[in-house]
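Task: fold both queries, return tokens.
Query 1:
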Amino acid sequence: MITMTSVEAQNRFGRLLDAVQREPIVITRNGRTAAFIVSPKDMEDLTNARASRSGAVADFEAWGQRAAASALPAAAELTDQDVLRLVKELR
């Protein structure tokens, strides 16, 4: 990943636009990261990954609710240590 200062980014904006097509660029200001610049393709990939992750989280939460609804009452009394012991016994 290329790193450049905000002053370099301003002074070499055309080069920045060309370079970001090859890899993301970190822009720093006063020695700290101020921004990341990514290509439209990278941004699309990031957006798709975020949407996919949100869907996976929603699916997992729905599964958790179904599992809780179908669990036996005794399951609520199990401690983390009980669960670990049971898992080790089943291996």
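Query 1 returned. Query 2:
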Amino acid sequence: MIPPVPDSRLSLVVTGRVVQGHRVASGGNGDPNFPGGSLAMQVPHFRKRGLDLSGFFLATLNLSLAPRIVALDRGRADHTFRQVAWHPSEPAEDFSFFRIAIRKTGQEDWIDGWIYHPHPDTKPAHFQPPNLLEVIARIRITGIDYGDEAELAFDPGQLSIGEK
């Protein structure tokens, strides 16, 4: 028997495909403007505002739901932070976070996480298509790679998925 999702609010499950992103959040692209990655630079600012990501795997997993389109209800986010000045020379940004659980398709255990949503209207670069979700997981998901399928459990009041 597959264990249930750890949070009963997360009642809908969707399957997506892991795709390569810009690799800025993790620092994997080697950009010297984001030493250690943008996420590592942002985490202290999120902590000061009430979201402690200490111990989380500091990279985003990019989950494509193509051809479906994703709509996040920012008004129902678990956390929204406005005008986060996390970088010495980049403009301040707005961010929303939505509680999720994720697992590689075929794995038994769910991993707690967040949809990490830098608001496109305040984001200066590295935009994502409307069918992609950036996810931060508590731990690195074992054995997951580009092209693999992953399951995402979410609160249907916060996120809707429609056809293109």
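Both queries returned. Flag for query 2: The chain has one domain: 12-162.
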